[in-house]
Every structure is written in structure tokens, then in C-alpha cells.
Amino acid sequence: MCPIATGLNVVLPFHPSGSRVFSTTPLVQLKEFFPRTETRKIVNTETSWRHPVYTSLFTQRFSEKQMRDIQVAHREARDWSDWVALGTVRFLRRSTDFATKYRHPPEKNVQNRADDFVMTERKWLVRFIFLESVAGVPGMVGGMLRHLRSLRRMKRDNRWIETLLEEAFNERMHLLTFLQLAEPGWFMRLMVLGAQGVFFNAFFISYLLSPRTCHRFVGYLEEEAVLTYSRAIEDLEAGKLPKWQDHDAPNVAIQYWNMPEGHRKMKDLLLYIRADEAKHREVNHTLGNLNQKMDPNPYAAIYKDPVDVHPTKGIDNLKPHGWERKDAI
Ligand SMILES: [Fe+2]
Ligand SMILES: [Fe+2]
């Protein structure tokens, strides 16, 4: 398939033979994709936040089981605001499926599927890169608008801002990770540019009108993200993605997630990313259940009874449908 058709030049940078399997991108160019800024005095830069955000407990006492236990889930819509959020996600899902040429085989007909249904490594990367370039927008818009509201109204924010910005940062790291595996062509860049231009402005206005609906929208979007990564993991484990079978995760990912030795393959990477998406799903469904103006952020809260089960930053206490307000605060 012509790379321009998908807008993506896919590369496997460290293939043992020295040549990349389906690349049209010279290795030299890829090396320069994220050039580190070096100056006369500065060696490197370091983060102000602790990373990774959601799976840090994991890295300390790594348990693959917890990441594997993550389930595809759906929170039923309960009111008109939920229906608006869910309807919008379903519309965007279909548009994105079209744009990224994503078609998963119908369960019943796996044996006789048409070529269009086969998801290759290239097709997955196209989808991941497009999705992640959009997924980093809501947290930044929400955090920015809450920041501005706090300044404008001279009121405290109850610590929502950091959680929203953390989410945006985390999504951007997903994108940067996949960009180590594939370099987008002009068509993909154009699509990302257009999607960001439209989506940023639409989300900005929507968040001003109804932040609760926007958090519900992100909750539903993250349900789709968990589904997408779950299917990719299934395909990988079923041997349908041979080029990723023994492929190392990019260095940027190993550093960001502190991936332990022996767990630094593509499959591990997808498990980490799915865990992040599952946490975004819970966080946003929970925030969508709260009073946007008054309630403190449960993910930054110190609880009176620390033994009582409550929302945490990690994925040890995951609630796919989010925490109800009465249980969270
Ligand atoms: Fe993501
Ligand atoms: Fe996400």
C-alpha cells in the first residue's frame, strides 16, 4: 500500500537485519525526529512531576495481573447530558474508524474475513497516532479553563487542574511513544491539524457550557480507547501482529513508565497504555458525577478514614464506571 494513502511511513528502527521491514523513511530522518535540545550549559531537562502517573505502584511491585484484569466496560447513559456525550462519542468513533481505516472483524466471521478487516501493525499505528493526537486535548482545555476561572472569579479550584493536566501530559507521552515507531506523512499531519483545530475549539466552547457533559464525554471516549487497546493486545497475543511479537518498546516508553527488565516489549507497552486509558475512563466518569464548582478532586484528596476504600491515583482500585459522588466525597 502506498504510504501516502495512509499518511504514515511505518518503521521498525532496530530490526535485526539492519533494514526496516516496511519503511520508506531513512533511519537518519527518524533519528532526528525528536532531537534532544543540547546547549552549551544544559545537559538534560527533568520533569517536575512524578511519572508515570497511574502505574507507579506497579513499577515498584510489578504485577502483570492487575494490568491484565482491566476490562472493557460501558457506563449506561442516565440523563440527557450523558446521552449527548455518548452520541457525540459514537459519531466521532465512526468518523475516526473511517479516517484511520479501522475495521475490526465481526466476531462470528473471523475465519472468512475480508482483507479490509485485517488490522496490521501499520493500521494499528495509524489509529493510535490519530487517536492520541486528539486525546491530549481535553485535559489541557479543562485544566486551562478551570485555571482561568479560578483567576477570574478569585476562587479556589479544589485541585482539579493538576489531575487534568496530568492526563493531557500522559496522553502526549502515548503519542510520542508511537511516533518512535512510525513517522506520519503529510496526509496524516494534515488530518491531525484539522482534527485539532476543530476539536480544540469545539471542546473549549463545550467545556464553558457544560463541563460535566465534557467529562462524561471523555469517560465514554476512554471506554473506546480501552476497547481499541484491548483488541490490539488480543491481536498481538493471537499472533496476528508478527512484527510486534518480539519487538522492543521504544526507549522513551521504557523511561516514562519505568518498565522493569523483562517487561519491555510491545505487548507490555500496550498493557501500560491500556492501564492509563482505564484510569482516564474512571477519573472522567467520576468527575462527571461531581458538582463542578464546589466538590474537591477525589484524586488529590486526603481522606478522613484512610482505610475506607476511596479513589486513588493508581489502578489498584479501578472503577470502570467511575465513583458515585456519595462514595467519592
Ligand atoms: Fe492515550
Ligand atoms: Fe486516555
From TrEMBL:
Keyword match Cell division: no
Gene Ontology CC terms, in alphabetical order: mitochondrial inner membrane; respiratory chain complex
Chain residues that bind Fe cation 1: 132, 171, 174, 277
Primary localisation category: mitochondrion
InterPro entries reported for this sequence: AOX, AOX_sf
Biological role: Catalyzes cyanide-resistant oxygen consumption. May increase respiration when the cytochrome respiratory pathway is restricted, or in response to low temperatures.
Keyword Transmembrane helix included in the entry's annotation: yes
Official protein name in the record: Alternative oxidase
TM helices/strands, residue ranges: 124-145, 186-209
EC numbers: 1.-.-.-
Cofactor: binding details: Binds 2 iron ions per subunit.
Pfam families, sorted: AOX
MF term (GO), any: metal ion binding
Source organism, top-level taxon: Eukaryota
Membrane topology summary: Multi-pass membrane protein
Recorded family membership: Belongs to the alternative oxidase family.
Upper lineage: Eukaryota, Fungi, Dikarya, Ascomycota, Pezizomycotina
List of residues binding Fe cation 2: 171, 222, 277, 280
Cofactor entry: Fe cation
Coiled-coil intervals, chain numbering: none
